Amino acid sequence: MATKQLTKNQNSVTIRPPVVCVLGHVDHGKTTLLDYIRKTKIASHEAGGITQHIGAYQIKLKNKKEVITFIDTPGHAAFSKLRSRGAEVADLAILVIDAVEGLKPQTIESINHIKEANIPFLVAINKIDLPGSNMEMVKGQLAEKGILVEGYGGDVVTVGVSAKTGEGIDELLEMIILLAQMQPLKTESKSLFKGVVIETRMDPKRGLSVTLLVKEGSLKTGDLVISDEIEGRIKAMFDENGRKVNLAGPSKPVEVFGFKKAPRVGSQVVSLKEDLWKSCRKKRLNREKVNGLKKVEQENQGQPEEKKVIKVILKADVTGCLEAIKGCLAEEVNVISEGIGEVNESDILLAASTKAFILAFRVAIPKQVKKLADYEKVKIISYDVIYKLLEDLEKQVLKLIEPEIEEEILGEAKVIAEFKIRGNHIAGCHIKKGKLSLNNQVHIKRNGVLLANTRIKFMQKNRQNVESVKEKDEAGLVFSPDVDFKLGDDIIAYNN
Ligand SMILES: Nc1nc2c(ncn2[C@@H]2O[C@H](COP(=O)(O)OP(=O)(O)OP(=O)(O)O)[C@@H](O)[C@H]2O)c(=O)[nH]1
Ligand SMILES: [Mg+2]
Alpha-carbon distance 382 to 316, whole Å? Predict the structure, then answer.
């Protein structure tokens, strides 16, 4: 059977479980789907209701012997790198699409990641329990994007599922197993260990932890490993349920302890014999010494004149978040230091001497560090949810560019309908207050949280093009750039 874990045949070739990456737009139900399969409740405890890191779980199917490793990825626009990394390490993918909302920007981005990774995939059309669900609409939209599903001239498998009721999930699992069987994943059981780093995290109590996915061979406690010139001695390993394990075979995700420094996420890890491992360590230590001296020399030579920038020290819980945040920063934001783990004294001292402020994303600030920050007058801003951090940072950047100008609110509207006419994405709006005019800059907010800033490109009232609309009017607006708005979103026109 193709997905049996470590099934031996005569020439010690084993078949490893498939690694299945779950991709799709934000809130389309990826985590809930995995929760249903794993009988967990991760989605309901996530800050801001969104996933903000990669999750790797291996499950053994009930009543069956098959094992599948699932990689859950976040759907928020900021986490593009995590989605692409998830697809890169996977053997196959599940594209999750909301049966009511249909294809959205990150669905399309996910399709591109799947194409780039060149892996087979199937489509789970989720939320079929909802009244407005429409599988045929989703299939038609996929066909428009060149993804031809069964019944639409192609052979991409689609399964209608509900992560709420469980409908269709057995069929989905069957399909995953079938797809995996079509390309048996062979591995040599005796080959040396090879793995890939999928996440790194700094745990205040347990130290640096590295999540690895075993690609070949197996990893044992005590093994000597190296990744990107950073070595580690595996002191302890834990599975996705926090249980200690001493051996991890192919396709198994494990959290390991024993790396001195965080290896680069996405890099390969291999095991080494002791003498080679020791000489690698010696070389690295020498290199670091030389680099350290060079840095001091450069600093002594003085810095070039500084541009108008916001200096930040970035701390986050996992490397994936750190990367996602950095990827979204405006060029006026200068990250002078970054790291995973809680805010510490040296971060404060660096912030004080460089007049930077500290952005702490999902990490703790110990009491004594907070005191030092107060004493040094260093500002620490903590966040739990990525879009709040990005929104605040954008405000800071706007202030930096135009410090004297405050926003004047011109008008407010609510989205009450959504249309697509001749390629235009139109927001049907009710004007609540003031006036909205063509070319106005607008904020789009959802439940009071900024979703996007854009501009009004076209405006129609009673099917006539108009230049402005006022309180109590109803109008159709087209934004440039387009925004992934929803019914109920607020539109705030402003002047600055
Ligand atoms: N009715 C219904 N609701 C669902 C279903 N699947 C997910 N949801 C709800 O949709 C919301 C988003 O679900 P998540 O599982 O967090 O979505 P996600 O794709 O993991 O979101 P991100 O990780 O942030 O991209 C939650 O409120 C879920 O309860 C479903 O099949 N039916
Ligand atoms: Mg999720």
Answer: 10
Side-chain half-sphere exposure of 411, counting CA atoms within 13 A: 20
What is the tens place of the pLDDT at every residue in 98-157?
A: 999 999 999 999 999 999 999 999 999 999 999 999 999 999 999 999 999 988 889 999
List, for residues 15-50, the tens digit of each pLDDT value.
889 999 999 999 999 999 999 998 877 777 887 788
d(CA 100, ligand 1 centre) in Å: 12
Q: Is 143 in the pocket of ligand 1 (CB under 6 A)?
A: no
Q: Provide the 3-class DSSP secondary structure of residue 161.
A: coil
Q: What pLDDT shows up at residue 171?
A: 94
Closest CA to 139 of 121, 123, 161, 118: 123
What is the spatial distance between Cα 304 and Cα 302, in angstroms, rounded to a whole number?
7
pLDDT at position 8, please? Answer: 44
| Mean pLDDT to the nearest integer, 407-411 | 85
83 C-beta closer than 6 A to ligand 1: no
Residue 35 CA to residue 445 CA, distance in Å, equals 29
C-beta 27 within 6 A of ligand 1: yes
Buried b (16+ CB within 10 A) or exposed e, 147-178: bebeeeeeebbbbbbbbeeeebbeebbebbbe
Give the tokens for residue 209: 């932890």
Q: How far apart are CA 381 and CA 315, in angstroms?
A: 10
- What pLDDT shows up at residue 79? 82
Contacts of 172 (CB under 8 A, 6+ apart): 94, 122, 124, 159, 161
